[in-house]
Amino acid sequence: MVWSGGFAVLALLYLILPAVLVAPSRFRPELAPRLITVMVFVWSIRLALHLGARVAAHHPDEDVRYARLRNEWGEGANRRMFGFFQLRGVWQVVLSLPFALVVLNQQTELGPWHMAGIAVWIAGILGESTADLQLTAFRSKPRNRGRVCQTGLWSYSRHPNYFFEWLIWIGYALFALSGPWGWLGLIAPILMGHFLVNVTGIPIAEKLSVRSKGDAYREYQRTTSAFIPWLKKRTVPQ
After folding, report:
1. How far apart are CA 98 and CA 169, in angstroms?
2. 193-200: long-range contacts (C-beta < 8 A, 24 or more apart)?
3. Is 18 exposed, middle or buried (0-12, 13-18, 19+ CB in 10 A)?
4. Do 121 and 40 form a contact (C-beta atoms < 8 A)?
5. Chain centroid, CA 232 distance in Å
């Protein structure tokens, strides 16, 4: 929850701090900085509320991913967990670079890169919200306990929420490309894509799903794209 909600705080700080520190009486941010702040707020708070509801559903039991880390780290778990969360705070600052670049640019009019960024962001936020709602609805039915969700977007990707999350970050980067140093904002979707596909996203989720759902999930892996939504593969009868 803090991971996602913290980006809204960062975006707001980037928007108001420069003007407040230099000339509070002339605080009149341009349209682009205000717009990307709203975009970040919508995404950040929606995701934080979604994660909050998920945490509340299994409280006081710890999230299985963190419980797994705690078990692997043994006696040094508290110290390493503290370091883990501080590192995530550092990554928040790095990933928020597109927001800072838009504020520093202070472009007076919206251009093609802004429009492209908005379009991709809208696709991402709608896709991620839809995937989350579909999975929540599937899990809410007792008859689906222990089964693999393959409805809606989950029929085309094993992790559509991660894919559309990545699309949102591409939208932020495109929005920042309107400025002279905007290309630095591409660091954010590159890093986020790496984290989701290779580090804390898909690898951990896949291991946990195989452990809890067994052959049903292995069949899902054989027929369904891991990340980018795509048509299912046909299974060959044995």
Report:
1. 9
2. 193/166, 193/169, 196/159, 196/162, 196/165, 196/166, 196/227, 197/162, 197/226, 197/227
3. middle
4. no
5. 24
Query: Residue 188 corresponds to which tokens in the numbers above?
Result: 């954010």
Q: What does DSSP assign to residue 140?
A: T
Q: Could you tell me the two tokens for 176?
A: 């920042």
Neighbours of 172 (CB within 10 A): 29
**CA gap 230, 47 in Å, rounded:** 24
48-66 confidence digits (pLDDT tens):
999 999 888 888 888 877 8
Q: What is the pTM of this model?
A: 0.90
pLDDT at 153 over 60: yes
* Ordered DSSP codes for 72-108: HHGGGHHHHHHHHHHHHHHHHHHHTHHHHHHHHH--S
- For residue 153, give the DSSP letter: G
Contact 181, 101 (CB under 8 A): yes
Q: How far is Cα 90 from Cα 28, in angstroms, rounded to an integer?
A: 29
Asked if residue 151 lies in contact with residue 89, where contact means CB atoms within 8 angstroms, the answer is no
- For 178-197, the pLDDT digits (tens) are 888 999 999 999 999 999 99
In the numeric block, the tokens 């929005």 are attached to 175
